[in-house]
Amino acid sequence: MANISKVYLLNTPLEDDMKNTLYFANASAQQSYMSNNVIKSYTNVSYQRDTSTFRCPAQIDTIRNCNYIMFQNTAYSNKWFYGFIKKMTYINDNYTDVEFEVDPIQTFMFDITIKPSFVEREHTNDDTVGSNIIPENIELGDYVSTSGVSKWVYDKDSTWFVIAVSKKVSGFKDVVYNPTGAVLPDGLYYIGVKNISAVKTVVKAYDNAKASDAIYSIFVCPATCYYNSSFSNVTLDEGGGTLTSIQASLQPNIWFSYDQNIDTPSGLAGGYVPRNQKLLTFPFRYMQASNNAGQITTYRYEDFASSTMTFTLSYALGCGGNGRVIPHDYRGRSNNSDEGINLGKLPVGSWNTDPYTNWLTQNGVNMAIDSVSNTLTLAGGAMTGNPAGVTSGLFGIADTIAQVYEHSLEPPITKGNVCNGDVNFAISLTCIHFNHMSIKPQYARIADDFFDMFGYATHRVKVPNKAHRQNWWYTKTIDVNITGNVPNDYMNQIKGAYNNGITFWRNPSNFLNYSVSNGIV
Q1: Does residue 268 sit in the same domain as residue 389?
Q2: Residue 433 lies inside a defined structural domain of this protein
Q3: What are phi and psi of 218, to 5 degrees?
C-alpha cells in the first residue's frame, strides 16, 4: 500500500472550546512543538478526512492520554492539519476508533489575515498612565481617602479685620487707604486692623464723630490682602483715644493670586501597587477638592499635563471674601476656570452703635458659634464671624464584578449650598481641602486580576494586537474581518473564536499560568 498519510496522536493543553490557544511565530515552530508532544505515530495509513474517525491500530488504554491529533495526506499535499480528539471507542484489543475535529486556529494560523475590525477589548501595547481611559463595567466599592492636604487655610490667627466706611473722619488720614485722595472703585475706604480691640476703637471713634452711619460693613479678610505688616500707634481725634495694632500705612490688595502645587500620589489605598496602569486613572483613583462649605469637585490625575498639579487662588477684597481656585494645564487648558472651586465665605460682622444698631446680614451669614462670638465682641455686640458582549466565560466573570453602585463622579460636581462661613472660620476650615481618593485594595485586586486575563476595553476599529506581550494576550472582537484561503466552515469557526474572545499563549510551559510576568515587548 502506498504511504498516503501520516497520523500522530499527541498530548497538548489545547481544548476544543478555543478560548485559549498557542501562538507560534511560524509554521516550523508550530510543527516542531507538535512533533515533540507525539505519543503515537502512524505513517502508512489511508487518507484522512478533515472531520472523521481514525481507526487506530492500538488498544484504547495505550492511547487514552492523547487529546490531540496531527495528520498529513502526503499523496495530495504537505500541509499539516491539527485537530481535537473528541472521543475514543473501543473496537477490540487491536483497534480503537478515534473521533476528531480539525482545530481551525492552529491549522490555518498562517493562512489568514485579520483586517481592521471592531476590537471590543484586548491587552494594550501602551500601558502608560492615561493612555487607556475607556470606561470599564467593574465594581468599585466605596472610596477611601489615602491622604489629604489643606491649602489656603485662613483662621483667626492669620486674618485681618476690615472696616469698610463710606467716608473718613478726622484722625484717620494716615490709616485709611486713600494715599492719593482717590477712593476704591466701589466708593469705600478700607481700614484694616489686627485685633478686636482695634475694631472697637474704630467703631467708637465713628460714634464720637457722629458718623456711625458711615460704617458700611465689618468683615474678615486674609492677611495677604495687605502689603505692609508693620504697626504703629495712632491717636485718633474726636475723643477716640489711641488706636493700636492698626496698619499705619494701609495698602490693601484689591485683587491678588498665587499658586500652590500638589504632587500626584504613587499608588492606591493600602499601598497597593497595580500591575495594570489603568488602575492609576479615574475612576479607580482621583483627587477630590472641597471648600468645606458644600462644594466638591473631582479632578483626574491623568488630565493634568504634569504629575505636579498646580492650582491658583485668585482673591478679591470684599465683604465675605471672594476667592476662587482654578487648576492649571488641566484638560488642555492653561487656566481651566470652568472647573475651579470657590473658597468658602469668611465671616461678616455685626456691631452696635449709639444711638442706633446697625445689623448687617449679607451673603447668607450664619449666627456665630460661642467661641467666635466670645472672640469677636464689638462694643456690646458681636462680630461673627461592563465588558459588554463578552461570551464564553467572560460574561460570567464580568457579571460577577459588574458595577452596581452609583457614583456621582463626573467633574465638576457641586453638592448643596451651605453657608457656614462662621463655623468654618472658628475651627480653621476656611480653606480648600484636597483629598486623594482611591478604591479599596480588595477591589483593586479584583480589577487587576480581571485586566490580567482580559485586557482593557478598547472599542476601536483596528487590527488586533498580537505578539506584543511576554506570555499571553487576549482579543475580543465584534464581527471580525478575516481573509484567507480557508474553507468557509472553518473560517466561520475562526471568526467565532475571535468574536467570543480568545487568549493566545506564547510559551506552552506557561499555558494558563496568569502568575507569570506579562509585560509589553
Answers
A1: yes
A2: yes
A3: -130, 125
Per DSSP, the residues of 226-289 read BS----EEEEETTTTEEEEEE-TT--B-SEEEEEEEEEPPSS-GGG---SSGGGGSTTTEEEEE
Q: What is the pLDDT of residues 50-68, one digit of tens each?
A: 668 899 999 999 999 999 9
In this structure, the answer to whether residues 390 and 404 fall within a common structural domain is: yes
Distance between CA 463 and CA 119 in Å, rounded?
8
Is 134 a domain residue?
Answer: no
Q: Is residue 517 part of a domain?
A: no
Q: How far is CA 362 from CA 276, 346, 512, in A?
A: 52, 11, 68
Range of the domain at 437: 143-154+256-344+385-442
pLDDT in tens, 497-510: 999 999 999 999 99
Burial of 220 (C-beta count, 10 Å sphere; 0-12/13-18/19+): buried
What is the grid cell recorded at 386?
461592563
CA distance 348 to 507: 72
What is the spatial distance between Cα 451 and Cα 280, in angstroms, rounded to a whole number? 13
Tally of domains in the chain: 3
- pLDDT attached to residue 240: 52
| Residue written as grid cell 478700607 | 190
Q: How confident is the model at residue 423 (pLDDT cuts 50, 70, 90)?
A: confident
